[in-house]
Design a protein that fits this description.
single chain; alpha+beta; Beta-Lactamase; 32 helices; kinase; PAS_fold_3; EC 2.7.13.3; phosphorelay sensor kinase activity; phosphoprotein
Length: 977
Amino acid sequence: MKFIADFIEANLDVLVRRFADAARRLESTQGLKASEVISTLPEYLHAVAAICRDGATPERLETRARLEEAHINLRLRVGATQEDATDEYTLLGRLIPQLWEDVQPERRPGAPGLQCLFQQLEEAMDHVVVLFSGYSLEDRQREKRFLRQLDAMAPRWLEPRADPHGPLRPLVELVVRALEAAGAELFLVDAGGRWMRPVAHTGHLVPPPGRSVDSQGPSFLGRVARSEEPLVLAQGRGLEDSAREGLHAPGWSTLLGLRLWPHGELMGVLCVGFAEARPVPPQTKRFLETLVEYLSGILDRALLMGQLREANARLEASETRYRLASQAAADTVWDWNLLTQEMTWSGETRRLLGFAPDETGPWASWWVERIHPEDRERVARGIHAAIQGTQARWQDEYRFLNRQGDVVRVLDTGVILRDATGRGVRMVGAMQDVTSRWEAENGHEQLLREARTARVQAVTELGQLHALLRQAPVALAILRGPAHVVALANDRICQLWGRPYEQVLERPVLEALPEVRGQGIRELLDGVLKTGTPYVGHELHVRLARSADGALEDAYFNVVYQPLQPAESGIDGILVVASEVTEAVRARQKAESLAGTLQASEERLRLAMDAADMGSWDIEPATGRATWDARFRAMLGLPAEGEVLLDEAMRFVFEEDRRQVEHAMAEAARPGGSGEYASEFRVRPPQGGPPVRWISGRGHVHFGPDGRPVRFVGTGLDVTEHKLAEEAASQRTEFEQYLVGIVSHDLRNPLSAIILGTTSLLRRDDLNERATKAVLRIQAAAERAVRMIRDLLDFTQARLGGGLPVHCQDLELGALVRQVVEEVQMTVPERVLQTSLPATALRGCWDPDRVTQVLTNLLGNALKYSPENTPVAVSLREAPGGVLLEVHNAGAPIAPDVLPRIFQPMQRGAPGMDPATRSVGLGLYIVRTIVQAHGGTIDVTSTHEAGTTFTVRLPHGDAKPASGARSHGTEQARPAS
């Protein structure tokens, strides 16, 4: 450390001169004399050199502190801010290393010397903070300790209707210990947002029942609920009843209260009591503000988690009711994915069809194949016509073959869900057994005769199987005996296997297809032959060598392995029936990868309820005669019974909406048109219903041979709740943005007046030390508020004013990045900041202040969320059409649920962090807005292995405004503090 001391003293004059030249360019030194700029710098450098050379004795430390205090007081008198004073020590720490770049390596100071120098400068900046704010290091450490304890005691959730006293009382008691008070009581507002009720008290185990206080009343607690600052009641004893409303504070003389105000809404009030009459110092009020802000976050999270648990419980109960309802109705409920052709079955599948739900095929083809052959083509044609058209419902009655092969007559009804283009994407329906009803109408004996005839025909066809196998139009083969020798195969299966006919016949299947060894085919065939149980496989995956070069390729087959008995067919072996579905499977797999995971249970429930709430109509356009189902009559407010013509029904539509409904109907009925009808309108409310009901109508007009409309059918859905929710959400969003903009602008004026007033007071020579410290604390608090408002103004400008202004100029980006990293390094000397800059200059047109704001925010974010023993890396490089700026840090990755909204406003870091690093959650949102205003983009990747990297892409040329941003403005941007 001797080298650093000798170096400072040998270059003292050069250091002082360079400091004076550099400091004169700072705004805070404008108009000062040369002696006022230099101040006590020469003596201070001598004191630092002595400490580094001979050690930090009490005398040397006292000398250094006295020189620092003299310099800081001088800056206070000339109106400098806390940041101005710390910037001068940062400047000094940057000038000293610049001097030894030309010194011989053996004379350069080592790591211990540098550590000693930077430690003195850090302690000087801590001294600045203490003198400006009056908040010492001990105060900050004490605050961190109690915040950690609050976080450790925080309940994970609070049930909405449960008594919160038990989990909340320890938190209130901790606040009492932190403030060294006699007791405290916590009040929370009710669902109406006005009346506050006690939920936790340190003086008794259970708060006295029945107490409540009006948050808008004249009591002390009511005034606290309406105040942004902590309120003090110097004498709590002997108050009038109106002032003591809601309080249960025997023995408390002085009261201190502060409201809980998360998200700009009143949550409650915390009242702290002191046994003796005493003034409350500013440090205690500030400490209370920090504790209450943290407590508000804890309660807000716990209440939200409680509501989420309750909602999940309601959803589970709803699912249970849905399942029980389907069982009680004795219906089989099916869900058909029209994109992948997958179909799932639930409900009374076993009772109705003889199949357990896990025995039904996963594809729609399983259902089609079990439809009676005489009905199959008609049913398939009808349902596909409904899917490809515009219908919302499909219904048909047909015969279905159950597990025993018997005929079950079913009534099948389905609801079609369509995407924005009208394409059918999902269908949910219910199948009901109507056999008994049909037999009563058509005669039971006829049904039995048909069944017996079908069985006789099946036996006859089985005897002809061997003769017809070669001429079969599908891929067929017979594997004989336990060795699975290919006894018979037709051309189609040879094509699927990619083998000539002579290479397959009379050979075991594993010799004919040697590449399938180890793929489980042999074990599968052995199981079928041994158990006698058929195997039906959809999308059986096999790797075959079917190409000329012998390369293996993935192939998928729908295959049936049916065991054959000698008594029935004369063959002891297995019948193979196969068809290739490779391309269909690949297409479905691609669609699945794009579609993601669907919330199947919730979607099924929602569609089933949509089907129950939908009404329908059938109108003859020529006569106006109409048929309305019961649900649509209830929606529109029509009479429950009797004929209602179209003109009469239109009188139930609001007059303001009637014209657009009639216009939509006329367009649908126009000759040569599409016939499609869609309209949303309001109707007269039924008695006892909501003030306004919204109906969404969808329909189709059918035309006759002459082109005239002959039938108009459609469905109606009650969308009242959806409309009301959209309107409420829109009004709330608009109000929140308006409120943020107005509040941030209106607060700026009084804060500017406060800062101007404190600056004027500090210029006075008659202020004693105590008054100076008080004024400095006021000034520091106001400047903190100004920084928060600056972020809010940037946010408001971006959301309501069309974007943030940028002022581009010719800039060498590498030099700016190096300067910002060096300045940040001075503030965190214990961390390692690595830079990777190109050898050549990177020039372009950018706003230096805004780019500095981007890099400073990203570096602060990386330092905040990474372990202290890991480096933070900054890299800059050329890219096609622009430059890439990357900031990387190690540590835990960003949570998957946070990553998609990381650049959204009001997103904060994880709970439990150092409160000094917390913000209003606008940093990354403003970063993205600045980058977009330059015509660039920002991305983030975050994994356990690679860490977290923010990548900024900036074009070289003039700023190109993106959506929500602008490239010029009237207000000059400043870097984020």
